[in-house]
Design goal:
three-stranded antiparallel sheet; alpha+beta; 521 residues; 9% strand; 11 strands; single chain; 21 helices
Length: 521
């Protein structure tokens, strides 16, 4: 009797699970949108959910199944999502009708964690007002004023390279570049010495925090997709994506810097100064996101509290070091494999240093077109954010006539766009020339989007460009890079990562240029 009841209970449970995980699977069929047949519970992303494959690569393959379709239906687990691979519709979503798509995803749950209140995760009026008030920190003039700090960090990078290459010429390049970019963001944004480029017998606390933010573990990965697919269940069970110790660390960091400045803005004009100015008021004012729809001039007042400010602090630190470190390491990886391109980059750096008395100055952001093209090409091959997600804030009808419901998740497949031979001939090859002067004009708008698009374009794009170019000059000033015996032939990305992160170490050989040049004479 007990066995029979158990079998009945199990059968009902399995039936309900199957029903709940498949009840939406006719969503795209009734709307006449092409799609691949989904699997119960997993949808079209089984291998991503099982941590076997990087998510954007699955999206890439879905797009290849429908190369001429502007819109493709998909199922992100049990929920329908729309993949948009037509540049004109991407333009509508990111610029023309941005109001309807201003949310990233899981909009109703961004206040559940302190960190997800930053401008990467936020939406609506909160995103708009905070973004408006942070934007002045990233003007060209502000970047130029803080470049002396970047130059100091670049000199420390030169010294670090000498120390590390003396021990062994084979260096893991991503961790090396992370030490440089972490020092840059610490100095420029917070006015603190992270000391990540100095030798120390104990673990560096900033490095520890960076690793916790971008932790690549199965537990973190399960949390990420559970939150994305079933946020109500995720938060009702008391889970969080990020551990509380991250918030505690950065709150303590801010308070320490506040006290050192006696709670008064300094003349550094950095992130802390901006925060201190905001902190002096109980509220911050900006334009309502609804103005984009109504054309009105409505203003919104947003309460300024420690949680809101700390959330932005974590974002600036994390995005300021990790994305640039990954970009620098992958640029060097490609140049190590493409020696002809590297020689051109080194020649340009030599000419620049000759003009500027071997000093790295702010002009490097405008005087190194080929080096910049190498970075741009690396970002094409390996975009840091390989899928851009948007969430509809109201019901909306696309120009194609397809009606979408509020809450629909939109995926812009950046990795697919960047690797589409229709937009980039020889798409799998590293060809920096495609980003030089006249050639760059041939790139179709809304097909190259390494920093996002429209009003949600990366707020720190200028800073990223500044520190990556300075880092490249500092490195090529005395060194060149070659592949090592264990350098991977191709780069694969970790399916557990919150952003695009290589799944294996990238070891490169750093060769002092004058030694190599002397050997070749």
């Amino acid at each position: 009797m007990i066995l029979q009841l158990f079998i009945i209970f199990l059968s009902i449970t399995l039936f309900l699970l199957y029903y709940l995980s498949t009840k939406n699977f006719n969503y795209w069929k009734v709307r006449n949108v092409p799609y691949l047949k989904p699997l119960p519970l997993f949808g079209n992303y089984r291998d991503y959910i099982l941590l076997k494959e990087w998510g954007p690569l699955i999206t890439y393959r879905i797009c290849k199944e429908f190369p001429k379709e502007p819109l493709i239906g998909a199922f992100y687990g049990t929920e329908p999502s729309l993949i948009v691979q037509d540049p004109e519709i991407i333009k509508v979503i990111t610029t023309k009708d941005f109001y309807y798509f201003n949310s990233r995803e899981v909009a109703d749950y961004t206040d559940k964690e302190i960190i997800t209140q930053n401008i990467f995760f936020a939406h609506g009026d909160k995103w708009k007002v905070v973004r408006q008030n942070l934007t002045p920190l990233f003007t060209s003039a502000k970047m130029k004023n803080m470049f002396y700090l970047i130059e100091k960090c670049s000199r420390m990078l030169e010294k670090l390279l000498d120390e590390e290459s003396t021990t062994s010429p084979i260096i893991e390049v991503r961790s090396l570049m992370a030490r440089y970019t972490m020092d840059c963001i610490g100095s420029c944004a917070f006015g603190v010495e992270t000391n990540t480029m100095k030798k120390c017998d104990t673990p560096n606390p900033y490095t520890i925090m960076g690793e916790k933010i971008f932790e690549n573990s199965s537990t973190r990965a399960i949390k990420l997709y559970t939150r994305a697919m079933w946020p109500a269940v995720f938060y009702s069970l008391g889970y969080q994506i990020f551990p509380n110790e991250i918030i505690s660390f950065f709150k303590k960091l801010l308070i320490g810097v506040f006290e050192s400045r006696q709670y008064k803005p300094s003349n550094r004009n950095d992130f802390v100064d901006l925060v201190l100015n905001l902190k002096q008021n109980e509220f911050v004012t900006g334009d309502s996101i609804s103005n984009l729809k109504t054309g009105e001039g409505k203003k919104v007042h947003l309460e300024v509290n420690d949680d809101l400010l700390t959330a932005q602090c974590v974002l600036f630190f994390a995005a300021g070091y990790e994305t640039s470190a990954t970009t620098l390491s992958l640029t060097l990886y490609e140049l190590a494999k493409n020696q002809e391109a590297q020689l051109k980059a080194i020649a340009e750096v030599d000419e620049y240093l000759h003009r500027h008395g071997r000093k790295i100055e702010y002009d490097c952001v405008n005087e190194l077109p080929y080096v910049e093209a190498c970075i741009d090409e690396a970002l094409r091959l390996y975009p840091v954010l390989s899928t851009i997600t948007r969430e509809l804030v109201e019901d909306y009808t696309l120009p194609t006539g397809l009606r979408l419901d509020k809450g629909m998740r939109i995926h812009i497949p950046v990795y697919r766009l960047h690797h589409n031979p229709e937009f980039f001939p020889n798409a799998e090859n590293f060809l920096p020339e495609r980003f030089l002067a006249n050639e760059r004009e041939n790139i179709k708008p809304f097909t190259y989007i390494p920093f996002g698009l429209g009003q949600r374009i990366c707020i720190g794009m200028r800073f990223a460009k500044m520190q990556t170019l300075a880092g490249m000059v500092a490195l090529f000033k005395n060194y060149r890079v070659e592949t090592a015996s264990d350098t991977p032939d191709t780069i694969k990305f970790d399916p557990r990562g919150i952003i695009s992160q290589p799944s294996t170490k990238i070891n490169l050989k750093f060769v002092r240029r004058h030694d190599r040049e002397k050997h070749n004479m």
